[in-house]
Amino acid sequence: MKFFAVSVVAASLLPSILALTVNTPTSLITCEPSLLEWSGGTAPYYVSILPGGDVSGSALRTFDATNATEYTWTVDIGADTEITVELKDSTGTIAYSAEVDIIAGSSTKYALFVASE
Ligand SMILES: *[C@@H]1O[C@H](CO)[C@@H](O)[C@H](O)[C@H]1NC(C)=O
Fold first, then answer.
1. 3, 10, 30, 73 — which has fewest CB within 10 A?
2. Signal peptide position in this chain (predicted)?
3. Which superfamily is assigned to 20-116 in CATH?
4. Is 66 in the pocket of ligand 1 (CB under 6 A)?
């Protein structure tokens, strides 16, 4: 009986010690907003965009620290680029998403931007 009571307490503590995880965005389209979401860990959070699968590579984008568990990123990286979302929490724990391919959007503004590069 005592063991049972202890188990219930341990289970109720679980949500506060969940591992830091970052969702892999379902699709990333140039010039379109994409919701990055994560859970677990301890705020504030530091989100970066790394080259796909290259966790020691330098970040392509770094966003301001946030206490929220989501961030809307208007994709400003060219199509056919593979990226990985990196999430660091205040304790220094780091989580990575799977690799995602950026897809070309239909925005002419972006086409002009590329043409002038
Ligand atoms: C997060 O919340 C803490 C405590 O309320 C606050 O001091 C800090 O400025 C917030 N950080 C950000 C990036 O909003």
1. 3
2. 1-19
3. Immunoglobulins (2.60.40.10)
4. yes
